[in-house]
């Protein structure tokens, strides 16, 4: 057949239907014919081919066609058979033929006709006949859209007739080799998933590998009915056994409720620490939420609990989500597996943030909280050791009780670190320093993480202050302002120093005729041990740790045994801030075990200690004998405060009270002895006693409390004995001196006068709310200076006078690391803090503190 300049062959059993017949409203030609089957054409390029096809009986060429004619005649009318059952009836006679499409004029060409390229010949498509079923399909669609279609219930949601996808056929047969079990699990990833029954539920296993090492890690047994041996849940995953006693490792488990978890977390019933998002991360989260909404159009609102797969997503949607998120978060490494491990929107965002911050799956930490409803808050307090980014039990699961000093009741059990735990923590810190992300990120990124940590501390400041009140007896309002407030300021201050630690170039004599360039570099030391006291649990931790981390070191922290809870909460915040695992490790425990092992450990290169002079000397000796560690010590004090008669007396009384009773007297720079000029002595004492009687002793969480409980029972008893010494030696006890008759460890604010230089209370630090007052003769500046300096301690000192020359003279001659003039307790994160003599050496705070955690390297080039 020839039509439109093309030659066609009609094959047997096929039919021809013009395109106009496909549309019910199209005008029909009287020559239109419908046949039982759609027509298929094959193009015939030559007469010989056409003849061969005719001779073979496979079909014929329409008569009247002229192969080489430029205009082909219209195809002749074909005999019309009876209309088939499923074809539309032929059009009635006389129906006008649809107009032929206009012919396009040939494009002008400058080339001669002989040189023109042949015009491409286009294949004419045959249109299938329109079945009579089409109106019924339209009707069915309308019924479905209107909700009137009959419903045929399925036996279960997601039912399938494909045997390979049926859940019941994917059950694991345990009576086979480990390799066969491994192949079965891998063969069923991800649909329908190889499963078994254990612990009263169906568990589906994914991501299996053969354990060729043959070593069985420590873990907890998981009984599996029918298995050759129980499985073992380890820190690397679930170990399973075949009947040949070989092992395979399963990484992921899907619980019966559909939640996917790392197999290593199967027995952990505790909560996972959720990262708190920055403003930029919140913007990213909303963009990802929009991507979820586009992929899940049936979901009206994507909430934290929205499950990707339960909302109708399939495997192809996983690929789309991964690609869209990678486009949103440039540089993010995301795999399909990550979607299966975090199926809810909230978990998925947490996973993305961890990856963007440089974390990984292992950085997710499971926390077993102790919960307390206190101060109109529900406190969630970690109570285990913090090693390598994980909260873990101590060796042998040893614990001890931490006590609330307000009522003497037990707060909770806290893990008690052993020597082996110290070794694990040091190893984690060393690995983080030498091989981890912490040493690879830029100094600016390190600062960014510390800023984020400070922001998190600020967001949790009420919770931190409440824990300080609960665990250390700190008055809540003071804890909020000082214990926590200054801790936040410290981390922000040192975060700003991270990218400003600089060396220098030094001109030296050249090795002529060559030249030389000498420069210095300041480098982190490595693993540092920090031992902190119990009077400011969080603030002392922050003073040392912020400088240590800003310098690029890793750290193992030993909080005071009696006040571990804020340090452990701090550990949780480091996780939320994205501090890489192993950078911060925290070990509650005794000084004789944990502190001693840190001092002796060959991989610890620096010890920072705040505490008593006696313990400081012992640490210094251990550091020297082990590996000559660098040491900074902030030790005891007996700080003098000299009050001259020309001072502002009201201010001197106010500041004198603060110098002694601040933080219940548990203050390393507390004025251990006040020297008051004779002419104002009695007036000063009278005003002080009046103010002491106004102080309210009570629950540290009450907003009007001025004076809370002492930190722990042993310290309270030492204060009682201290006052007994003073009375026995002849000092005048003006007020206080006794334990308050109420539950808890409360001690009365105390004032002693007539204290002579030789007395015990004149020389020894009380570390409690005890004011020691001595007279000095009017105008005798040099004598009072000599008495003030007649001590082996030199942490702080103070002077009150209106005479500027006298103030400068006294401040020059006081032998102390800090001198306050007409004020007291005024410390700042930018001002170096540290003592002289047996009060230690080295500084906290200020730029100088960074040098305590840095080493200087000299590099010389010759060219």
TrEMBL record:
UniProt keyword terms in alphabetical order: NADP, One-carbon metabolism, Oxidoreductase, Phosphopantetheine, Phosphoprotein
Family matches, as Gene3D superfamilies: ACP-like, Aldehyde Dehydrogenase, Chain A, domain 1, Aldehyde Dehydrogenase, Chain A, domain 2, Formyl transferase, C-terminal domain
EC class: oxidoreductase
Domain Carrier: 279-356
Listed SUPFAM superfamilies: ACP-like, ALDH-like, FMT C-terminal domain-like
Keyword NADP: yes
Residues the entry annotates as binding NADP(+): 532-534, 558-561, 591-596, 611-612, 718, 765-767
Database matches in CDD domains: ALDH_F1L_FTFDH, FDH_Hydrolase_C
One Gene Ontology CC term in the entry: cytoplasm
Reactions the enzyme catalyzes: (6R)-10-formyltetrahydrofolate + NADP(+) + H2O = (6S)-5,6,7,8-tetrahydrofolate + CO2 + NADPH + H(+)
Biased amino acid composition, Pro residues: 74-105
Residue ranges, compositional bias (Low complexity): 16-26, 106-117
EC number from the UniProt entry: 1.5.1.6
GO molecular function, one term: oxidoreductase activity, acting on the aldehyde or oxo group of donors, NAD or NADP as acceptor
Region of interest called Disordered, as start-end residue ranges on this chain: 1-117
PANTHER family cross-referenced by the UniProt entry: ALDEHYDE DEHYDROGENASE-RELATED
Family as reported in the entry's similarity comment: Belongs to the aldehyde dehydrogenase family.
Name of the protein described by the UniProt record: 10-formyltetrahydrofolate dehydrogenase
Organism this protein belongs to: Canis lupus familiaris
């Amino acid at each position: 057949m020839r039509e439109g300049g093309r030659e066609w062959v009609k094959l047997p059993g096929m039919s021809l239907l013009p395109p106009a017949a496909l549309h019910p409203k199209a005008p029909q030609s009287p020559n239109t014919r419908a046949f039982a089957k759609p027509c298929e054409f094959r193009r015939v390029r030559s007469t010989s081919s056409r003849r061969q096809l005719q001779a073979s009986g496979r079909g014929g060429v329409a008569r009247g066609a002229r192969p080489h004619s430029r205009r082909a005649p219209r195809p002749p009318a074909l005999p019309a058979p009876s209309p088939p059952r499923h074809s539309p009836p032929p059009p009635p006679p006389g129906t006008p033929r649809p107009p032929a499409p206009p012919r396009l004029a040939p494009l002008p060409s400058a080339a001669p006709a002989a040189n023109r390229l042949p015009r491409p010949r286009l294949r004419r498509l045959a249109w299938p006949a329109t079945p009579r079923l089409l109106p019924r399909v339209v009707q069915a669609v309308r019924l479905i859209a209107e909700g009137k279609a009959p419903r045929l219930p399925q036996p279960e949601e997601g039912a399938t007739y494909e045997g390979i996808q049926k859940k019941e056929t994917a059950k694991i047969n345990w009576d086979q080799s480990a390799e066969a079990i491994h192949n079965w699990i891998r063969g069923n990833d991800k649909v329908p998933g190889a499963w078994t029954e254990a612990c009263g539920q169906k568990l589906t296993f994914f991501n299996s590998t053969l354990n060729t090492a043959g070593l069985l890690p420590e873990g907890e047994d998981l009984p599996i009915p029918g298995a050759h041996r129980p499985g073992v849940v380890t820190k690397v995953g679930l170990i399973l056994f075949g009947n040949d006693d070989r092992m395979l490792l399963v990484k992921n488990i899907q619980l019966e409720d559909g939640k996917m978890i790392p197999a290593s977390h199967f027995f952990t019933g505790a909560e996972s620490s959720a990262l708190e998002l920055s403003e930029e991360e919140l913007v990213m989260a909303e963009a990802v939420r929009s991507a979820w909404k586009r992929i899940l159009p049936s979901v009206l609102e994507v909430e934290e609990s929205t499950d990707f797969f339960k909302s109708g997503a399939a495997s192809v949607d996983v690929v789309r989500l991964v690609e869209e998120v990678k486009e949103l978060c440039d540089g993010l490494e995301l795999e399909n597996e990550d979607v299966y491990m975090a199926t809810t929107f909230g978990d998925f965002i947490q996973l993305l943030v961890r990856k963007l911050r440089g974390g990984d799956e292992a950085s997710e930490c499971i926390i077993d909280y102790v919960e307390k409803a206190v101060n109109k808050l529900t406190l969630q307090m970690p109570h285990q050791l913090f090693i390598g980014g994980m909260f873990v039990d101590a060796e042998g699961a040893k614990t001890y009780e931490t006590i609330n000093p307000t009522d003497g009741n037990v707060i909770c059990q806290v893990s008690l670190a052993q020597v082996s735990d110290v070794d694990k923590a040091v190893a984690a810190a060393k690995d983080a320093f030498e091989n981890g992300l912490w040493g690879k990120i830029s100094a600016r990124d390190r600062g960014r993480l510390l800023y984020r940590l400070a922001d998190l501390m600020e967001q949790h400041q009420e919770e931190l202050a409440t824990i300080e009140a609960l665990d250390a007896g700190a008055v809540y309002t003071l804890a909020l302002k000082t214990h926590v407030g200054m801790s936040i300021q410290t981390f922000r201050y040192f975060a700003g120093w991270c990218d400003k630690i600089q060396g220098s170039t030094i001109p030296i004599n050249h090795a002529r005729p060559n030249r030389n360039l000498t420069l210095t570099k300041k480098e982190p030391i490595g693993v540092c041990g920090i031992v902190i006291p119990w009077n400011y649990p969080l603030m002392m931790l922050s003073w040392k740790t912020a400088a240590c981390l800003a310098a690029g070191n890793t750290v193992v922290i030993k909080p005071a045994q009696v006040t571990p809870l804020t340090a452990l909460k701090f550990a949780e915040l480091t996780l939320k801030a994205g501090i890489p695992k192993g950078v911060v490790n925290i070990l509650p425990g005794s000084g004789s075990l944990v502190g001693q092992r840190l001092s002796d450990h060959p991989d610890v290169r620096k010890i920072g200690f705040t505490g008593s002079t006696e313990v400081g000397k012992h640490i210094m000796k251990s550091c020297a004998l082990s590996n000559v560690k660098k040491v900074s010590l902030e030790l005891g004090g007996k700080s003098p405060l000299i009050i001259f008669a020309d001072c502002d007396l009201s201010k001197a009384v106010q500041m004198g009270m603060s110098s002694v009773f601040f933080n219940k007297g548990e203050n390393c720079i507390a004025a251990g002895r006040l020297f008051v000029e004779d002419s104002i002595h009695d007036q000063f004492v009278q005003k002080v006693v009046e103010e002491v009687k106004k102080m309210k002793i009570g629950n540290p969480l009450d907003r009007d409390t001025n004076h809370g409980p002492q930190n722990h029972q042993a310290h309270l008893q030492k204060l009682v004995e201290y006052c007994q010494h003073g009375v026995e030696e002849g000092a005048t006890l003006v007020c206080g001196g006794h334990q308050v008759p109420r539950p808890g460890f409360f001690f009365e604010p105390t004032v002693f006068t007539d204290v002579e230089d030789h007395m015990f209370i004149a020389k020894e630090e009380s570390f409690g709310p005890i004011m020691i007052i001595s007279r000095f003769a009017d105008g005798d500046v040099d004598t009072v200076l000599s008495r003030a300096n007649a001590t082996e301690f030199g942490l702080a000192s103070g002077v009150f006078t209106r005479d500027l020359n006298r103030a400068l003279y006294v401040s020059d001659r006081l032998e102390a690391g800090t001198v306050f003039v007409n004020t007291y307790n005024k410390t700042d994160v930018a001002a170096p803090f540290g003592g002289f003599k047996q009060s230690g050496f080295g500084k906290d705070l200020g730029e100088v503190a960074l040098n305590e955690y840095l080493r200087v390297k000299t590099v010389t080039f010759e060219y």
